Amino acid sequence: MIEPNIEPVIYTPLTRFTLSWFNYQTTKCAGYELDLYDCAMRGSKTNAKKICWKQYHDFMECVKGWTQLKRYVEMRQERRKQGRPYMPPPPADVIPPNNPY
């Protein structure tokens, strides 16, 4: 369930570069990952699955987007069933230039 914490044995100039390789701290899911690790640190390694299942599911939802995909599929099916056309995209000046989503 929870990935092991990998700490550098030898600190080199490349160490800072590799700090975000095995986690989600540079993504939008950073807060969920921290909540999961905070909860897991309060309990033991064996009890973390039982205690922190809510935080784990929130984190996995952020990473995988299962509920969002399910909602999208249901909306698309309903739109096809009603025979409604898709809405036109918004004008380009409304969307910010550095939109991460």
TrEMBL record:
The keyword Transferase does not apply. Disulfide bonds join C29-C62, C39-C52. The keyword Mitochondrion applies. It is found in: Mitochondrion inner membrane; Mitochondrion intermembrane space. InterPro entries: NADH_UbQ_OxRdtase_FeS-su5. Its main location: mitochondrion. Residues 86-101 have a biased composition (Pro residues). Pfam families: Ndufs5. Residues 79-101 are annotated as: Disordered. GO terms for cellular component: mitochondrial inner membrane; mitochondrial intermembrane space. PANTHER family: NADH DEHYDROGENASE [UBIQUINONE] IRON-SULFUR PROTEIN 5. Accessory subunit of the mitochondrial membrane respiratory chain NADH dehydrogenase (Complex I), that is believed not to be involved in catalysis. Complex I functions in the transfer of electrons from NADH to the respiratory chain. The immediate electron acceptor for the enzyme is believed to be ubiquinone. Belongs to the complex I NDUFS5 subunit family. This is NADH dehydrogenase [ubiquinone] iron-sulfur protein 5. It comes from Potamilus streckersoni.
